[in-house]
Amino acid sequence: MDALTDPGQNTSRKQQLAADLRMSASRIAERAGGGLALIFVAAPENGSPENTTRLRAAAGFPVAETARDAAQALMATVREVITSGTEQQLGALPSLEERSKGGMLIVPMNLDDRCHGALAVGAPDSMQDDLREFIEQEASKLGLLLDHSRIRDELESVQKELAGLRDGEGSVDNSHEVLELSEALFAQDIELLRNNEKLGKIEKLKNDFIEKMSRELRTPLNSIIESIISVLTGENETLSDNSKVSLRAALDDGTEFLRTLQNILDLWKIKQRELPVEIQEVNFREVVDEAIFSVQDRISEKPVTVEQRFSEPFPKIRTDLAKVNQILFLLLENAVKFTARGQITITASLEDDQLKCEVKDTGIGICPDDQPHIFDEFFQVDELSSRTYAGAGLGLALVRDLVVLMDGDVAVKSDAGRGTAVTFQLPVQIVG
Fold it and tell me: Which long-range contacts does 289-298 make (Cβ < 8 Å, 24+ apart)?
């Protein structure tokens, strides 16, 4: 079967396009100084000639619902931009004023005479010329990317039609159309490669630096940790109590630092699309048990209990074991850290090929002003919390990126002084 008419290949292309849009939104929001980015696409829906504008990707929002609310608030202006083909400047979004207090810039994603949608970007500070130029360049690249997808779809449609034709004259006409579309697709392939090559040179420099720092830090850190373990196990009886306490504290600090370093690397790999999703059969109950065991030492130091609630029946699933394990560990670690007493509840259910899991605690909670930022990398609520609760502020950021990588959603609900509930939802395959 021709690759262009293979349903599996078509699904893979759509998934890759969705991933490309998500990564573009993330890169743009980061470049905007920790702002917001929304990508709207205008395309015919259900065979209708009328264009339907909808949100396809967003970054910089605490939860998906907030992004959808922002998209709804911007939709009228976005449609005006798409219709006119000219950009517009707006003020801050009321619901996310701090992230967009520098204003919102909405730019059409044009290519030649066609507008494929609009890119809306908010920044915490006023937008300088270099940022505006960057946003306009990204909008042009997105227009090219979407037009490339459109031509592929048209080519696939014509090829299917051509395969079913028996009339020789009709076949000739359609063959010319296939040739024209193929030539256009080839020209866009070249342009996309050029864009990727420019971006690749910059990313390679960053990647080389991260890899070098990883090697330079992890190698001696592993040696230090191994040496401490060796002393504690080999000379335990000859060590004084104070020495044991000091060595165990050093071991805990070293292990925590190594974990933070690994989290940084995982975040980097996700941004570079170098962290593949590996699907396998998973017993989710065992994953939960393993995650609880990993934080058991910290739980035992406090009057905190952990409860599991599973909706029955709960069969095995197919998903990425390592990533689900990492997500649960990070959420449990976070819950234990901020819960001095009380209970942590893990609730899980399976419905319509979706795994829904909630980790709820009775800890200190998060005040409303801080909730929009909790998925930011290195974010700590305040200096007092940074000193009281050790950590680099990477846990929830990595949870978000891992969930998004697996085409899922994550949301947080919290009341200051009463606790926090983090819910993630992932598409899975139910076994049996």
Answer: 290/325, 291/325, 291/328, 291/329, 291/332, 292/332, 292/346, 294/329, 294/332, 294/333, 295/329, 295/332, 295/333, 295/336, 298/333, 298/336, 298/337
> CATH 3.40.190.10: does it fit domain 280-430?
no
More confident residue, 248 or 153: 248
Residue 118 has pLDDT above 90, yes or no: yes
Asked if 393 and 380 touch (Cβ cutoff 8 Å), the reply is yes
Please give the DSSP secondary-structure letter assigned to residue 116.
E
How far apart CA 148 and CA 154 sit, in angstroms, is 10
The CA distance from 228 to 98, in Å, is 45
Is there a contact between 104 and 78 (Cβ–Cβ < 8 Å)?
A: no
Residue 276 has a CB neighbour count (10 Å cut-off) of 9
List Cα–Cα distances, 157 to 114, 149, 165, 178, 415, in angstroms: 20, 12, 13, 10, 52
Tell me phi and psi for residue 350, to 5 degrees.
Answer: -125, 130
Q: With the CA atoms of 106, 112, 114 and 116 taken in that order, what torsion angle do they form, in degrees rounded to the nearest 10?
A: -50
Cα–Cα distance between 159 and 165 in angstroms, integer? 10
Length of the chain: 432
Write phi, then psi, for 239 (nearest 5 degrees).
-80, 145
- Output the 3-class SS for 198-250: HHHHHHHHHHHHHHHHHHHHHHHHHHHHHHHHHHHHHCHHHCCHHHHHHHHHH
Residue 432 contacts residue 358 (beta carbons within 8 Å)? no
Structure tokens at 305: 């209990």
Q: Which CATH superfamily is domain 3-164 in?
A: GAF domain (3.30.450.40)
- pLDDT per residue over 354-395, tens digit each? 999 999 999 998 887 777 677 765 555 544 444 444 444 577
Q: What is the mean pLDDT of residues 298-303?
A: 88
